[in-house]
Fold:
Amino acid sequence: MNGHKTTLYKSELQNKALELRKELDKKELDLIFDDNFFRDYLVKIVVKTKKGITKGNLFIYYKPTKDAYSLKRQIKDTQTDLLIDLSWNKINNSETYAAESGIYEAFVDGSYINGTTGYGAVIYLGDEIKAELSGTVPNTQFRQFGGELKSVLETLKWCDENYVEKIRINYDYEGIEKIALGKWKAGNEFSKEYIDFICRTKVEIEWRHIKSHTGNIKNDKADLLAKRAAGKR
Structure:
């Protein structure tokens, strides 16, 4: 026995870091890390330009119970942060449509804090924010579930009012899509109203599941809006 301790999930973290490095290399950014940068479930990465200018640090976490990675940033400038966000989304298959496509993107979420249900939605065309929607749900009996569905309803109402023909709804709660498509049973009146609204809307909807708290900035914005709305009281 030499007393050497194995770093938990080092190989998984290293593979993910190398995947991100390969993508950022196309954007003239380099990621620096070695064995000393690894901890259990975590790797710290230094971000530099090809000219050697340090732009900040990244932290990739691995959660084995969900087989999910999350990214935390300490970046000095907005442009570098944007390039990292685009690259991270690409390697995690969560890229957004370009503005030229005409397809809008909505990131939606719900929250329940101290007896108050909040909802949040951020609507994009490309990387431009077109609307930020948030508020509370008067009927709190369904807690966070109520906020999740409300975020979609308010998004579609906004689309109807602004003549949006197609939108992709990005969510982290699976019931948003599965209830809408009849894969999960509507067990209460609110769910039935939700399905009815989805059936009546003229907006073409594309659904996409995004894991929560993985470092997707757009998804985190919706989460923050929902939490702020729920915490206002």
